[in-house]
Amino acid sequence: MIVVAVVSAKGGVGKSTMAANLAVALSRHARAVLAVDLDPQNALHLHFGGQPQDIAGLSRASVGGTAWGEVVTRAASGVRVLPFGQINEVDLPTLERRIADDPHWLSTQLRSLDLPADAVVILDTPPGVSHTLRQALAVADRVISVVLADAASYATLPQIENLIRRHYGAKPGSVESVCIVNQVDATSRLSREALQLIEGVPGMRVLGRVRADRSVSEALAHGQTVVESAQDSVGRQDLLQCAEQVLQLLPAPGQQAPEATADAEAPVETQPEPTVVLGDEDRRPQGQAAPKSRKAGVYRLMAALLCAALVLLIVLWIRTR
Ligand SMILES: Nc1ncnc2c1ncn2[C@@H]1O[C@H](COP(=O)(O)OP(=O)(O)O)[C@@H](O)[C@H]1O
Ligand SMILES: [Mg+2]
Q1: Do 276 and 295 sit in the same domain of this protein?
Q2: What number is the average pLDDT over the span 116-129?
């Protein structure tokens, strides 16, 4: 199997849209494609005709000990889809702990599917830094980051690039990561300038641009990808072109993809983790306790309170004499 991870520092940039459309477009090139949703937002399956109330998916399967193969569905396009599924608030932390404790969780689960060597697995990942994202990068043969042509996306590029370098770029067989700029608005000066800035980032290879197009979100409203829709919109053209480019990055059928051997929790570089999104737990290297400075601050505060209480007692004692 050849694993393609679709990643971003920020949410709402079009990752799931990209993953779903790439999956359908690649399946038209006679590639067996499995689209896997690793994001608890559980949005990927909606692009394949799934319903918001659908429950089954890899989250419950992982917690309940069910094989992932049993919750894979088949979309009308022929793409196999593994939704994240719905999970309750008790089971979600259990799943997150399992992912944090077992750096090989994702690779083990993917291997258990026993896919053909030339099958393409597209991973739709949660935004920002997480154990899931680290594992996705460690298991990926190719990484595609999605950014918007705006200042906020431009600002987060170094963070996601740093993470990609740490967990993907340093392992054997890795190639350069690429990015797709989404929702480009040629009529907006700001959008054009942001695109120029992104294209000018050293080491950044922009694989494609997708224009902002209402038909992309309209297709989602109909439970399909814009690639499948009859109407030949600019969004569809752009996404098909991106898929052509992605296809060039993949080993041809029969040509084995390099084995992803990196350990998700043992990054080879020693650069600091990027401080993107999410909570404190994700900003610290795994296993590291709360920063000492915070504890020291608490002790200082307690000491100051004790001193103040002591002074107050002395003043009261002097007054009552
Ligand atoms: N090129 C585009 N043109 C117009 N709307 C888009 C485009 N790409 C994505 N969208 C819309 O943007 C929203 C967020 O996309 P989504 O793929 O869910 O982002 P993410 O997975 O990064 O959170 C969706 O409503 C989607 O239909
Ligand atoms: Mg998404």
Answers
A1: no
A2: 94
Q: Is the CB of 12 under 6 A from ligand 1?
A: yes
Selected residue with higher pLDDT from 36 and 315: 36
Residues 7 and 82 reside in one and the same domain: yes
Q: Domain containing 249: what range?
A: 2-283
Same domain, 251 and 308: no
pLDDT 10s digits, 173-199:
778 879 999 999 989 999 999 999 998
Q: Which residues surround ligand 2, an ion (CB under 5 A)?
A: 15-16, 43
pLDDT at 283: 34
Q: Per-residue pLDDT tens for 243-276?
A: 999 999 998 877 665 554 444 554 444 344 433 3
Q: Are residues 314 and 248 in the same domain?
A: no
> How many whole angstroms from 93 Cα to the centroid of ligand 1?
27
Q: Are residues 91 and 197 in the same domain?
A: yes
Sign of CA dihedral 316, 318, 319, 321: positive
What residue owns the CA closest to ligand 1's atom 24?
217
Q: Give yes or no for residue 17 CB within 6 A of ligand 1.
A: yes
Q: Are residues 150 and 171 in the same domain?
A: yes
> Does 213 contact ligand 1 (Cβ within 6 A)?
yes
CB 212 within 8 A of CB 184: yes
Type and span of the H or E element at 210: strand 205-211
Q: DSSP secondary structure string, 222-274?
A: TTS-TTTSSS--HHHHHHHHHHHHHHHHSPPTTSPPPP----TT--SS-PPPP
Mean pLDDT of the chain: 85
CATH number of the structural domain spanning residue 270: 3.40.50.300
Q: Does residue 69 share a domain with residue 185?
A: yes
CA of residue 175 to ligand 1 center, whole Å:
27
Total structural domains in the chain? 2
Closest of 272, 206, 283, 209 to residue 241, by C-alpha: 209
pTM of the model: 0.81
